[in-house]
Each structure stands twice: as C-alpha cells, then as structure tokens.
Design brief:
- The chain is mainly α and 123 residues long.
- It has a domain of 67 residues.
- Helices cover 52% and strands 0% of the residues.
- It contains 3 helices and no strands.
- Helix 2 runs antiparallel to helix 3.
- The longest helix has 33 residues.
- It is flat, with a radius of gyration of 22 Å.
- The two termini are 30 Å apart.
C-alpha cells in the first residue's frame, strides 16, 4: 500500500508527558499555493490527486492528469461562456461582458479542447 500524502484529518490525543517531548514540525497545509503547485508538477489531476489508474506508464499518468486538468478548465470556461451569453440575451446591458471577452472565452475553450485531444492520443 502507498502512504497517504495528506495527514489524517483528526490528530491523536497528546500523551500525558507531552511537555517533555521535542517540538514536532507542524505539517504544512496541503491547500497552500506552493503545495498545490508541487502536486500539479508531480502529476496531480484536477482534483489534486494523482491519476487513479496505476497500470499506465508514468509519462502516460502525467498526460492523463493533464487531460483531467484541461477538462476541468474547459468546463469552467464553458460555464462562464454560457453565463455571459445568457446575460447578453436576457440581462441588463451594463452586465454584458462584451464581444472581446466572449471571443476570448471561445478561444480558451477551443485551446483547452485541442490540448486535451492532443494529450489523449498515445505518443
């Protein structure tokens, strides 16, 4: 079994002679910016965890994790695009983000889908 990357959510109670024990380093928060960047660099998928399938080669695991991140980004960009289009059609005119932002969102969606498609094909 592999050791978990994160400490258990509930720490054990301190022993009676805790004052005599040497000070322990507090585990770093796994949600900090640097910790998240390190997990992404080591192949973390969009949920921050490594790709769950263990049989692909390590390079393929990284590619699949990158596809997962691109897919999550694509979903966010499409949700923003849909919200902007609904505001353009039904909302107040001052809330419309503008044609350039709409085009940027479409280009982001296109780029993310190309990225995901490229990474899915085995090299």
């Amino acid at each position: 079994m592999t050791t978990p990357e994160f400490p258990p959510p509930h720490s054990d109670s301190a022993p009676a002679n805790d004052a005599d024990a040497p000070p322990q380093q507090t585990p770093s928060d796994p949600n900090t910016f640097i910790a998240t960047l390190k997990r992404i660099g080591s192949g973390a998928a969009a949920d921050g965890l490594p790709w769950p399938e263990r049989h692909p080669l390590p390079g393929r695991q990284l590619a699949l994790a990158d596809v997962d991140c691109a897919h999550a980004g694509l979903r966010v960009a499409l949700e923003m695009l849909l919200a902007a289009e609904r505001v353009r059609q039904n909302g107040p005119e001052e809330q419309y983000v503008g044609d350039r932002v709409m085009e940027g969102l479409v280009m982001a969606c296109l780029s993310l889908s190309v990225q995901a498609g490229t990474l899915l094909r085995p090299g």
